[in-house]
Specification:
By secondary structure, the protein is α/β, with parallel strands linked by helices. The protein is 31% helix and 19% strand. Strand 9 and strand 10 form a beta hairpin.
C-alpha cells in the first residue's frame, strides 16, 4: 500500500487517460494515469491551499516542455453522482479546447509524470516506481523531468528504470543501481563512485555506462 508502480507507455487512442473517468475516482493517481482528469479536477478545485499550488505547478511544468500549452479544460458531464470527466486542454492561441488525442506522445507522457511528481506530498505513496520515463521525450524535457524526480525524492523514495543515456546524465553516480542478469537471475550493484573518480572528471555517468565500465550492458 505504500508503494505504487507507474508506467505511461500506452498513448494510443484507447489509452486510459484519454477515456472518460468517474469524477470521484480521484483518491490517488492510478498506475496508468487513467483517472488523471478527475485527479487534476480535484487538485484544481480543492479548498486545500497546497492542492491548488500543485495544480499550478503541474501546468507551469508542462509549459516548460510544451510552450503552446495553456491550461487544462476540466468540465464534468452527466447526472449528479454519476458524473464523468474527460481530459481536455487549451492551446495558448486557440479558444476551443483540444482533446488528449491531439497531444504528442511525449507531451502526453510528460503530463502524466508532471502530475505524478508534483502532486501534493500527502497524496503520494512513500515509494514511487516509474518504468522507462524517457520514452518519447525530447532531451530538454528529460532535463526538466530529472529535476522533478530530484525534488520528489526529498520526501519520497523514487525508483526509475531507464536505458537513456541523456536521462542518466542528469544524476550523480551515487544515485545508480546497475542491474545485470547472471544465469537467469538479476544482480543489483550500487555504483562505486570512488572507483570511478578519475573517469568522472571527464565523463558523465551516462557516458561511463556506454563504455561498459559499470555493467548494465547486454551480454551475448
Amino acid at each position: 500500500e505504500e508503494c505504487r508502480v507507474y508506467h505511461f507507455h500506452d498513448t494510443s487512442s484507447t489509452a486510459g487517460f484519454k477515456q472518460a473517468s468517474d469524477l470521484d475516482a480521484s483518491d490517488y493517481l492510478y498506475s496508468n494515469a487513467s483517472n488523471i482528469a478527475a485527479f487534476l479536477y480535484r487538485l484544481k478545485n480543492s479548498k486545500e491551499k497546497n492542492y491548488g499550488k500543485s495544480y499550478i505547478d503541474i501546468v507551469e511544468a508542462i509549459k516548460t516542455v510544451a510552450p503552446y500549452f495553456h491550461d487544462f479544460y476540466l468540465e464534468p458531464r452527466g447526472a449528479p453522482w454519476e458524473e464523468k470527466i474527460l481530459l481536455k486542454w487549451f492551446h495558448r492561441d486557440h479558444e476551443e479546447p483540444f482533446s488528449a488525442n491531439q497531444l504528442s506522445d511525449g507531451t502526453a507522457r510528460f503530463i502524466c509524470m508532471a502530475a505524478l511528481f508534483l502532486q501534493p506530498t500527502g497524496l503520494r505513496s512513500k515509494s514511487i516506481v516509474l518504468d522507462e520515463p524517457e520514452l518519447g521525450l525530447h532531451p530538454a524535457a528529460l532535463e526538466v523531468l530529472a529535476e522533478l524526480v530530484k525534488a520528489a525524492s526529498k520526501e519520497n523514495q523514487v525508483i526509475c528504470s531507464t536505458q537513456s543515456v541523456t536521462f542518466a546524465n542528469q544524476f550523480e553516480a551515487q544515485d545508480f543501481i546497475v542491474v545485470d542478469q547472471e544465469k537467469g537471475e538479476s544482480r543489483f550493484t550500487r555504483v562505486d563512485e570512488d572507483k570511478l573518480k578519475d573517469w568522472l572528471e571527464e565523463y558523465s555517468i551516462g557516458e561511463i555506462w556506454t563504455k561498459n565500465l559499470i555493467g548494465g550492458r547486454p551480454e551475448w
